[in-house]
Amino acid sequence: MTETTTTSAPAPAPSGFTPSSDDLLVVQDLQKHFPVTRGIVFQRQIGAVKAVDGVSFTVKRGETLGVVGESGCGKSTMARCVMKLLEPTGGSVMFDGRDITRYNRVQMRPVRREMMMIFQDPYASLNPRKRVGFIIAEALEVHKLGTAAEVKRRVQELLEVVGLNPEHYNRFPHEFSGGQRQRIGVARALAISPKLIVCDEPVSALDVSVQAQILNLLKDLQSEFGLTYLFIAHDLNVVRHISDRVMVMYLGHAVEIADRDQMYTEPRHPYTGALLSAVPIPDPELGRQRQSIVLEGDVPNPINPPSGCWFHPRCPRFHEGHCDVEVPELYPMGGEGHVAACHYPLESWPLTAEEMSRGGTKAAKAPSE
Amino acid sequence: MSLLEVKNLHTHFRTDDGIVKAVDGVSFTVEKGKTLGIVGESGSGKSVTCLTIMGLNSKRTAITSGEALFNGEDLLKMGSRRLREIRGNDMAMIFQDPMTSLNPVHTIGRQLVEAILLHRDVTKKVAKARAVELLEAVGIPRARRRFDDYPHQFSGGMRQRVMIAMALVNDPDLLIADEPTTALDVTTQAQILKLMKTLQQEFGSAIIMITHDLGVVAETADDVVVMYAAKVVEKAPVAEIFNRPRMPYTWGLLGSLPRLDADVERLVQIPGQPPSLLTPPRGCRFHPRCPYVMSVCRSEEPQLVNVPGIDNHLQACHLDEDTKRREAEKLLEGTLAEAS
């Protein structure tokens, strides 16, 4: 990542955090680039898809960090790097005080007992040929946790915890509905009592009523077992409901990190503002009155990202000569731990009509303190 | 006269396991230039209702009865030649998945021109000009150049714009949009919804908006039909549905929605799963999942009747009015979840 540091910029606040023993997960400057090659026999690398390009954040023990962004913003790649299912290109991942970035498979094995994942598609993420009991018990068996009888007892206990009938451990995934399958996914993630659960869009494929069941279940389990979640979703309503803190990603970068309430009541990055105002509100009067920022165009191609601020081609507050030249860092935005990568952050929320069209002016404003 | 009047529509499918009653006595009307939202979970029959109106169900397995009067003509009894004239011309459909509903081996220009030439007696040149004009109208940049592109060269949002352009080529009176934004990101969804609204004002089309997203309904619809297990359970103007919902299923839908504008610790959850339409429950179809179930609910099916004192608001529920009013108020205050 090329960073143009200007002398006037405030001292680089590395994403506004200082790692402490409270943090279960500390991710610093995480990068994942996928090479783009040309040629059949002699493959030359002609570029790279910068799926994740310098993301830093922390997750405290027992909290939920929500990650939102449009499809293709790198949120799933980031999660897979954290889980070490993908090898990060750069940066570091500290899990529970250990730097696991360069751990090999053998070194990772004990770490894997402490992190699990819940996937998006409850149809594709369960092996259709295996019985539910086997699916849930697999991690227990891999890590040799308990005898056969103990494993079976644990599986039945887990089924009960997630609200399924313990007698159903002998059934196959196809005998369950979408919501029930997602419960199986949750039971599988809980099996080895992990410290961290990475939820990659766990409710996106579900109907609203079933979605509410799963969200309530995840919250209950968190308070019961003290779980830590890294919760990825594109639905801002869902993220607000479940998270303590929220990170917004755009084109492989974290553009804003804040406390849940701050993120939703005082967003500072125009992209966050645009996302928030794009969410349909289930209230006919409120929804039709409010001002919204409708973004033009699509997310740029990550092979050839825009210069300067990654968001500038779509930004309503774009300032020529600054936003397209200088890469913004995560500047502190007042609230505790509230950081946003923007040269001209929003000052108020909800936006007034005048505020919205504030782009394009040559404001002589230094990056916000 | 209403543009579309659906009366007591039934669509049943013959399957190996028996007869699936996918739509079972649905009635509603769509007025000219207005938007009707149809909401419900997957499998509630919202899509089948619209496919039946469009005459797109398989003739071999579907059994339909009832009436669907479009400008006074019954679509269900119409010959296939007349139906083809109307379909794509007076009424058109936008499907959920823009990836699979465009033909991948033809350019989008060719697909648009085909739709025009089928219904209009014009030269190819005129048709092409019209197609380009529409691509511009739906906000595709450099429309003339993109005319010869294939669907895979467009992003999801752009493809959905092409679908909308295709639906609009012949200025339809009625546009049926089946989950038009479900496969899209929020920002793209906002773009598409805004586009549909402007085009509606411009072309004066009526829209049937099928969706499971109550937010989308709140922002776009004039009237709302709530469907559950192949039946209409509540029907009212949009403000009524959101401010004075009268049916426990609607409460469940509203309460299970995490929302930006309200703070709730716990979501209302509707327990269980939607019933099988092969053997729907006796009595009220919602009774196995309803927290307010009474003995009458198990035996007697509630009729869709007017809420006393309020015109246009229809509901199908045995609960007494006082309880409903009280519970609906609790829901709007966000305290229903603690109670149930």
Give a description of the structure.
The complex is a heterodimer of chains A (369) and B (340). Chain A has 369 residues and is an alpha/beta fold. Chain A has three domains: 22-37 and 47-114 and 196-250, P-loop containing nucleotide triphosphate hydrolases (Rossmann fold, 3-Layer(aba) Sandwich); 123-193, no CATH class; 283-369, no CATH class. Chain A has helices at 75-82, 105-112, 132-142, 148-161, 178-190, 208-225, 236-242, 260-265, 270-278, 284-289, 353-356; strands spanning 23-38, 44-60, 64-68, 90-95, 98-99, 115-118, 196-200, 228-232, 245-250, 253-259, 331-332, 339-340. Chain A has an eight-stranded mixed sheet, sandwiched between helices. Chain A has a four-stranded antiparallel sheet with strand order 2-1-4-5. The longest helix of chain A has 18 residues, at 208-225. Chain A is globular, with a radius of gyration of 22 Å. Mean pLDDT of chain A is 85; it is low at 1-16 and 359-369. Chain B starts with a strand and ends with a helix. Chain B folds into two domains: 4-225, Rossmann fold (3-Layer(aba) Sandwich); 241-339, no CATH class. In chain B, α6 (156-168) packs parallel to α7 (186-203). With 340 residues, chain B is an alpha/beta fold. Chain A binds chain B through residues 70-71, 177, 179-180, 207-213, 215-216, 219, 234-238, 240-242, 264, 274-288, 292, 294-296, 298, and chain B through 41-42, 155, 157-158, 185-191, 193-194, 212-219, 238-239, 242, 252-261, 264, 266-271, 273.
How would you sum up this structure in a few lines?
The complex is a heterodimer of chains A (369) and B (340). Chain A has helices at 75-82, 105-112, 132-142, 148-161, 178-190, 208-225, 236-242, 260-265, 270-278, 284-289, 353-356; strands spanning 23-38, 44-60, 64-68, 90-95, 98-99, 115-118, 196-200, 228-232, 245-250, 253-259, 331-332, 339-340.
Main sheet makeup of chain B: 8 strands, mixed
The number of helical segments of chain B is 13
Q: CATH topology of the largest domain in chain B, anyone?
A: Rossmann fold
Tally of separate domains of chain A:
3
Task: Tell me how many strands of chain B there are.
Answer: 12
Shape of chain B: globular
CATH superfamily of the largest domain in chain A: P-loop containing nucleotide triphosphate hydrolases
SSE pattern of chain A: EEEHEEHEHHHEHEHEEHHHEEH
**Beta-strand residue percentage of chain B:** 15-25%
Provide the spatial order of strands within the biggest beta sheet of chain A: 6-7-8-3-9-10-12-11
